[in-house]
Amino acid sequence: MITKKQFDFLLAFSEQSTSGSKYSDSRIDAAQKYIFAHSEWEDIKPVNGNRECYTIKQYGKKLGEKILFWHEFLLNWPTDINAKFEALKETGGKVMADSVIKASIQHILTGDNANKCAVDNGCFMGSVKSALAKIDKFDKAAKDYDKL
Asked: What is the pTM of this model?
């Protein structure tokens, strides 16, 4: 089960990872009810035909599901480098080319220069650096999350 501290961590993590405006207070409140207080969640109903309630509830549920996804994702973040790249595919983010993944893994396992690994695998060093930064980001997030 997720705690309030974990919820707050994942909310901040999600806001840092997405572009656009921050989540509204009403959306966050609805997401908290969706996760922590299901009876209150069920009590969210339109008043005098106000359709805004449906929108808040819909977006709150979507945010709640996202928070729960990241909760499971960080709890189960693998230690094996190959498994880490497989796990990144689950996020629904931009797909990394196989050559970039191979070059990144080569760099991590051998300690070879990132540019050499990129050339060896037919990709750009910038792509390898970006892939390595993503792995580092999730390594750090999983470690920090584990402390909560």
From this structure: 0.86
Please tell me the distance from the alpha carbon of residue 2 to that of residue 135, in angstroms, as a whole number: 24
DSSP 21: S
111: left (phi over 0), alpha (psi -120 to 50) or beta: left
The one-digit pLDDT tens for each residue of the chain (148 residues) are 899 999 999 999 988 877 777 888 988 999 999 999 988 878 777 666 666 667 888 889 999 999 999 999 999 999 999 999 999 988 877 889 999 999 999 999 999 999 999 999 999 999 999 999 999 999 999 999 999 9
Contact (CB, 8 A) for 114 and 129: yes
Single-letter residue type at 5:
K
Task: Check: CB of residue 14 under 8 Å from CB of residue 67.
Answer: yes
Alpha carbons within 13 A on the beta-carbon side of 58: 6
